[in-house]
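Quick note —
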Amino acid sequence: VQLVESGGGEVQPGGSLTLSCVVPTYIAASWQLSWLRQYPGKALEWVSDISADSSHTYYADSVKGRFTTSRDNAKKTVYLQMNSLKSEDTALYYCATSSDGQNRGQGTQVTVSG
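Predicted structure written out below.
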């Protein structure tokens, strides 16, 4: 399963970033998708889920109210809009086809500093 994340970068606290993840065609309209993150030397941490038809979204308490996940199945892309970023959001972010992150992309680095 090839998932390709992009959109990471460095931002100051309080800033915003939008991550994107392009998924294969057979996944785009049929599978629930997840975002996870990983701190150096730590286990994967689940961030959010979105159902195949976007009717349901779920968030970790640590990001609820600040992050929003969405998807455009026609573009085969899932998004993670991140607002009010904090230093503790600094991590490598992955999209995945499951909440445990077993099938995930290569990740995109988000650094919140300054």
